[in-house]
Amino acid sequence: MTATRTMGYGMIAKLLHWSMAVLILISLCAIEFKDFFPKGALRHAVVAWHFQMGLCVLILIGVRITWRIKNPAPPIFPSLSKMQSLAATTAHVALYALMLILPILGVLTRQSRGNDVDFFGHVLPAILDEDSGLPYALKIKSLHTYLGDVLMWLIAVHMLIAIFHHMVRRDNTLSRMLP
Amino acid sequence: MNIKNIAMIGLLIAAAMASLNAQAYSGSEYEKDAKITLQNARDIALKTYPGTVVDQELEHKLGGSGLRYSFDIRAHHVTHEVGIDAQTGAVLANNRDSDE
Questions:
Q1: What are the pLDDT digits (tens) for A135-163?
Q2: Do B74 and A40 touch (CB under 8 A)?
Q3: Of the CATH numbers 3.30.110, 1.10.238, 1.10.150, 1.20.950, which one belongs to the domain with range A11-169?
Q4: Beta-carbon contacts below 8 Å between A and B
Q5: Of residues A139, A147, A169, the one with CA closest to residue A95
């Protein structure tokens, strides 16, 4: 099976893209809307979903980066200007970086304040313990929250630009990734 | 991934770190509506439950004036959520954090 077809992304690239989109959406919604749930077991479960989905993203982003390096993106027709290509590359690198950094910061946020990080019933080994992490807990959490906001904006821009390419520029940018 | 891409990631992280104010917190957009500053509220919260602030937020929530600073404060392996009214400085909550 070829990884990347001439006119579109291959099945694995599409699967990684759309499954991660769903995981990120669940993770962001869980943390953004947690306050709508009453304090207690239900809210605890909603917050836990944020962690679980984030850790799934962390695993998949490793696979995705490896896959992307070995399988270049199919070309866009009509082709982009140099400026547009540079902007697209920068935005994609930023998205990949955030998908990698945010879950790690999430783990550090939990561990720096002495909480275990549970991944579907398995407690992850501690990178940071409470004694050494507590003085940095607020800064780590602030950075996690801030970069989370950056990710939300980048995703919104990513979606709008994909629609712009499809509806206005009428190139194959979006259709390459459609199932 | 080539060197150029790695450099871009580095720049992104550096830009994010540089633009992140040490006092950045959720709800800072409501700061203009608050009479009590974050620092004052933080001082009151730490007097109420001495420890290390691990999270801070300014939020609209029922109780008091409706606008409060919420601090998660960690001490002796226990995290408390301390709520301070953003208009009066009154302590609205001091409970063990149930989100842990």
A1: 999 999 999 999 999 999 999 999 999 99
A2: no
A3: 1.20.950
A4: 70
A5: A147
